[in-house]
Specification:
Layout lengths: L2 H18 L4 E5 L4 H11 L4 E6 L6 H17 L3 E5 L3 H10 L6 H27 L1 E3 L5 H6 L21 H11 L3 H5 L13 H5 L3 H12 L9 H16 L1 H4 L13
Length: 262
């Protein structure tokens, strides 16, 4: 991959899109992970306004620290970058108190994890509306189009997706080219929705390089019968997520009414 040319291409695409839409800049949630770090750096390179939001919900201190350090790095290297801290923990806790309990605690736990992402999406659009900004998405190709590893109308609720055509390993290539803090590059990827230290690999059961391989195999028409041992296991994991999350990766279904009924 021609990393520097890809960076220039995305930056120009972002600037052209915002200018043509009559928008002043971008707002993005900074998580302390590589995807939001790269996306925010690309937005900053446009020279347009960039508002970085820290939206803590029972967040691990390491994630908060990496996010804060990255925002400081952006401010030191680019003009027109500002930041706001929004503590969503009390809002989240109040919502939990208002909701009824359920019999299956694991299902409730998963639903509340997605609720965190949706609270953040709501907050991003609040500030976007105030400032005439676009909400920049941080999803990469494997998450957005491979296994659907994001929250529908949460981190999937954005105005544009600058890195959604890049594999996770390619995002890391951009991170190194952009000079992203090494602590972010070294940190294990996590969605930060659980209030603990579980990583994406802990949740999924496979690493991003493995998932990228499985995505390529699927695109080549391979099936699980073509593999054995770990490769077969990884391919099965990828296909299980791909099938289960198809509803996230396709347009919302519309019930079309026959003309003779109208």
């Amino acid at each position: 991959m021609q990393t520097e040319k890809v960076v220039d291409h995305i930056v120009n695409w972002l600037k052209d899109y915002a200018t043509n839409a009559g928008m002043k800049g971008f707002v993005i949630g900074i998580s302390g992970g590589v995807d939001s770090a790269v996306t925010s750096a690309l937005c900053a390179r446009t020279g347009l306004d960039l508002l970085c939001l820290e939206m803590s919900i029972h967040q691990a201190k390491s994630q908060i620290s990496r996010a804060s350090n990255h925002i400081d790095w952006l401010k030191n290297n680019f003009e027109h970058v500002s930041s706001t801290e929004v503590n969503l923990t009390p809002v989240f806790d109040s919502l939990i108190d208002a909701l009824p309990t359920v019999e299956v605690e694991e299902m409730r736990f998963m639903s509340l994890a997605n609720t965190r992402a949706r609270l953040r999406m709501t907050t991003l659009y609040y500030f976007a509306a105030l400032q005439n900004y676009l909400v920049a998405g941080t999803g990469n190709k494997v998450e957005d189009f491979g296994i659907g590893f994001y929250t529908k109308y949460g981190d999937g609720g954005v105005d544009l997706s600058p890195i959604a055509d890049l594999l996770k390993t390619e995002v890391y290539d951009l991170a190194r080219s952009l000079g992203i803090n090494q602590e972010i590059i070294d940190a294990a990827p996590t969605d930060g929705l659980w209030g603990d230290d579980r990583t994406d690999e802990d949740q999924i059961g496979a690493s991003y390089p493995e998932l990228e391989w499985a995505m390529q195999m699927k695109d080549e028409g391979k099936t699980e019968a073509d593999f054995v041992d770990r490769q077969k296991q990884v391919f099965q994991i990828f296909m299980r997520y791909n099938r289960a999350n198809t509803h996230k990766m396709t347009p919302i279904p519309i019930c079309e009414i026959p003309k003779n009924l109208k």
